[in-house]
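Quick log. Single chain, no ligands specified.
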Amino acid sequence: MYVGRETPSVAGIINPGAEGFQKLFFGQEEIAIPVHSTIEAACAAHPTADVFINFASFRSAAASSMSALKQPTIRVVAIIAEGVPESDAKQLIAYARSNNKVVIGPATVGGIQAGAFKIGDTAGTIDNIIQCKLYRPGSVGFVSKSGGMSNEMYNTIARVTDGIYEGIAIGGDVFPGSTLSDHVLRFNNIPQIKMMVVLGELGGRDEYSLVEALKQGKVNKPVVAWVSGTCARLFKSEVQFGHAGAKSGGELESAQAKNQALREAGAVVPTSFEAFEAVIKETFEKLAEEGKISPVKEIKPPQIPEDLNTAIKSGKVRAPTHIISTISDDRGEEPCYAGVPMSSIVEQGYGVGDVISLLWFKRSLPRYCTHFIEICIMLCADHGPCVSGAHNTIVTARAGKDLVSSLVSGLLTIGPRFGGAIDDAARYFKDAYDRGLTPYEFVESMKKKGIRVPGIGHRIKRGDNRDKRVELLQKFARTHFPSVKYMEYAVQVETYTLSKANNLVLNVDGAIGSLFLDLLAGSGMFTKQEIDEIVEIGYLNGLFVLARSIGLIGHTFDQKRLKQPLYRHPWEDVLYTNLRFAETVISAVSLVSGGMSNEMYNTIARVTDGIYEGIGMGGDVFPGSTQIKMMVVLGGELGGEDEHSLVEASKHWKRDKNEALREAGAVVPTSFEDFEALINVTFDKLVKSHVMLVFLYFLLLSKAMVAHNSILTEPHEFVEGMKKKGISSARTRAQMVPIGFLFLEVTKQEIDEIVDNGYLKGLFMLAQSIGLIG
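-> predicted structure:
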């Protein structure tokens, strides 16, 4: 209960077979209460919780209550259910008393400690709790058999005293787990309680235990008591009141006898129930006059927000909706699709196409339209196990995954390369036709843009072997559609594309896309704006997704029915290569001697993975291939200017060529005999450091960085010298990344490819996956 405390009093909920958390309001905030599947688990998780409230039905209340009593941490068990077998109740009571534990109930509404917590449904709503001052402790202890009368008495006591400290309804069954006297004696030992109010009822002899306690002087605080049921004497026959125990079995069990016995034992007993409030007030005021009670200082209870649904119904607030739905409504007696009741859909014999027309297009299309939709679904339901969608579904199903996972794995392959071209085909065909382009102008304009014509082309079908599905769709449309202008235009486009290649036929995507345009335009039920919106949103690809789901589900069931094992792709169907991401390939470039070139090919092959390209005199020192990561240059002995074209200026001509190249940044051996060893060392360092460092370097790049070269080092003087001499062509410009004394070539093309292919997004997705998995 929130009103009088800052933290929840409920530690956990036990719901057999379920675990997790239950959302509940605590004041203005929502909190999550742990849910446990067993009593044992709950008690282990919350060792300080000592009260168990049992809301189970009478069929299982006894067993679960006994299980709770056997937990060492549980001190009190409250049983809400009525009708618990008396034999079970006796066993619970005996076990509880022998283990110094308390049972409240059966057939109780619970109890409340004002300002602290309540058990069960006692005290009613928040409004009643505030009205009865139960948000803070008072000075009165109250115990009753009747739960319903407890709420009435909380109100009565609050009007004439400073409120209750604790109230308990022990339950109205014949054998309650605790008695009136048990709680009165307990109240007598609580310093905050200054007086007790007891409400009994006819039937049973529980009140006489309180009479004995009063006579023996065990109670030294005032007790105001009343036993209800005095009207029973007005009936000629025995009367059974609401509770199982509210039945007089003789004079001693009558309300009159009990009231007289309590009065004689020292309790304050009114002459009637109507006078009960007055004697409670009188007793309280007397204690206050004697200084035995210091009335509780009244505090303002915290404001408890009204539940949203209650406030909306009362017209106090209005709340915005979170979802807009225009296609279906389930608030009435039966669901409606676009305003059409479910019963009408069944009674009028609507088919799947009709349901799609209602839910997708929000109107009832003519029967030829819905029949066409159904034909499309039938023709696109499956296309064998070898297409990408079916293959993915089969592999996933064979991995032991469930139906939904297998279906989704196949659906995720649908896109521009598989089944996702229907919308594009409709979009481009419509645009070309509406603009009056000839098939030639349309195809050639697409070619200039570098875009393949969607809906044209097939891996298997040819001009002399048309797709049967396309023929069936065209035949149906020519028979039933008012107009097939878009389809005829698509056929004209096909005629032109077949003149270029025999496999550029109108495929099923193109047929459905063009014919759907004819359906929308020819039905007269859609505006031009609506047609454009339908194509743009992706309705037509939705048709393929819906249809192919039938086949993918079938493939899933097929694999599970056949009990197929985990799929592993055969080795012989994979091209294995030694290429790595940043493969080291040598370019051997000879500027002078062809004979020496052959010698160098042999040398390089011995100490590296071989050459990529070998060039004679005049060759480009910087080949454009991104596969070349290291260059080997063999110059002449004396004279000539070719080598000095590798250096920055002509002033180096008279200097030693090797020295000039070394100063320019090249790796130059001290002698020709060391050439092979130096090539070997350079290659080894490239292999060991190049792959990982360059790969990590790539991942840090962004398009902005690449555009401004902000992250790349300036090209070496050696490269700049080459550029100034015009030896390095525009196609071979390289961004050079120095690692040690090596140059690792990272071309602009490579960087652009890495960025465009989403490497950086992949890194972000990988990082986010860590959190999402968590």
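The longest helix spans residues 675-699.
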